[in-house]
Design goal:
Layout lengths: L8 E2 L13 E2 H6 L13 E5 H18 L2 E2 L9 H9 L5 E3 L2 H10 L3 E7 L3 H12 L3 E6 L2 H11 L8 E6 L12 H13 L3 E7 L8 H20 L6 E6 L5 H8 L8 E6 L11 H5 L16 E12 L2 E4 L14 E6 L5 E3 L3 E6 L4 E5 L10 E5 L12 E5 L5 E6 L3
Length: about 425
Amino acid sequence: MDLTIPAERIDWRTKGVFRPGPAIDVADFVAARPHLFDGTFSWPVMTARAGAIAHNLATLAAFCARHGVEFAPHGKTTMAPSLFAAQLRAGAWGITAATAHQVLAYRAFGVPRILLANELLDPTALRWLAGEIDAGLDFLCYVDSVAGVSLMSAVLADAPGERPLRVLVEVGHPGGRTGCRTVQQAVDVARAVAAAPRLEPAGVAGYEGGLPDAAAVGGYLDALRTVTSQLADAGLLGEEVIVSAGGSAWFDLVTDQLAGSWLLGHRLRTIVRSGAYISHDDGLYADGTPFRDRVSGEGSLDAALRLWAQVLSTPEPGLAIVGFGRRDASFDSGLPVPLQVRSTSGAFGSARDLRVVRLNDQHAYLECGPDAGLVPGDLVCFGISHPCTAFDKWQVIPVLDDDHTVTDLIRTYF
């Protein structure tokens, strides 16, 4: 499906594009098919590989279809309506959000079904959502405390509309973030929801991504099943029950343990929420994706994001200073990875003797082997680790074909 993408223009405010003259419409910019190395762009610039994005979209859509689960990819990774639209066209059930403001942005884009994977206790946002739900928005959010239920209920008592706000009882784990810590807590919360006039219990949800290994994840998912069964046995859930989990590292275990028809007497809808898959990466998720080891026969993901930056200085042997830094690349879960060099002559070469060892705000320290041969003016292409903290640094990301020609632009809204 297509979403509403605000009309945008490219001008001096567009990071990565060097345009000192008049603004140009995005459509006209793309239609001109600029090339990465023709002078249109300045350094650094984050780009995306069109083929990798298409491959990743198809791979996870096929995985979910094979395993009988719904997919609500987490939109916080990209905050890009063009990518949301592509995910929905590929069969996504909805788009997941993390904050009330993200939900507001999704509605501006026209996303028809939103799962807020978080508690929602802001009275202003709750009142607005009550009207959106009454107008037809399919919406879910979390709740993990009786106090939270009481606050939501008090706000909704005089909010516009009549349709109830459907909520998922969130199950957490010791040392984790939000979520009920015991089965009894979850039952108490579900009872409070069922008794609230404008709330409706729709199922159970959680997040396994912070757990250290497969055994811990398996135990946690067993706990999600136990809570779901207890709530169903207590008559607190309707005919359709939603169970949701699944980040980008353990979605295979989620489908193994939560999909199927194990909740007798109910129609189970299992929703996974992976977000980083669409761009993948060359670090955190390259090492952690289930497609690497556990389900290697079911597909693969390709890293889509590429950061191009220029060598500014080679001030001493074994060191090059490159013109990008913490303002331009993710660094919270691994430093950028050198992939390729383009010399000032235009020739491409290997980056095997290069390693990023430190970042400042706008500078990267590149350790160089004896055969690196970098000189000021060379361009280096980097892969990144953890795309969730990469997209937010760029308002516009050019999408390139294999020849480095622009085929589209990704506009982000953080």
